Amino acid sequence: MVGRAGIIVPENEPRALSLGYDVNRYKLVAFVISAGLAGLAGSLKAIVLQFASLSDVHWHRSGEVVLMTLLGGMGTVVGPVLGAAALLLLEEFLPQALDAVRPGWGEHWQIVLGPLLLAVVLGARQGLLGLLPAARSPARPAAGTEPAGR
User: Fold this and answer.
1) What's the gap between Cα 11 and its chain centre?
2) How many angstroms separate the CA atoms of 123 and 117, rounded?
3) Residue 149 dihedral angles phi and psi, to the nearest 5°
4) What is the dihedral of CA 26, 27, 30, 36, to 10 degrees?
5) DSSP single-letter state for residue 140
6) Predicted model pTM
7) Rounded distance, CA 64 to CA 118, Å?
8) Hey, where are the domains in the chain?
9) What is the pLDDT of residues 44-65, one digit of tens each?
10) How far apart are CA 66 and CA 101, in angstroms?
């Protein structure tokens, strides 16, 4: 995935096909790189902690990663980090806050978390990062186009 092919294949697959790119090959390369990095991260975690549990390979774990990315904002490095921090803080403090309102409600914290996450994902298309004024930048030209005068 080098150069413009790494940009055009996910954004406009028919255009990439018409330009002669082997789209399936680029998708396979992206998948292999992604799986390799995920495997490396998992193996490093097991080495550092000297422990690997079955909960690490449960399908909920990959769902959490996708949710963190959607919550923080896709397309940047900072967005998923922000989403991870927000989700972990919500998981930690939401049960306590609900128990403060009414004892016993803290064990049902996921019922409140679901609509909160839906509101952010549906209401803020660019995630939490898009809500920050510093993260808003002027519109960038689409991939493959150049500003006039060049």
Assistant:
1) 17
2) 10
3) 100, 0
4) -120
5) P
6) 0.64
7) 14
8) 1-52, 58-136
9) 989 999 988 888 778 888 888 8
10) 30
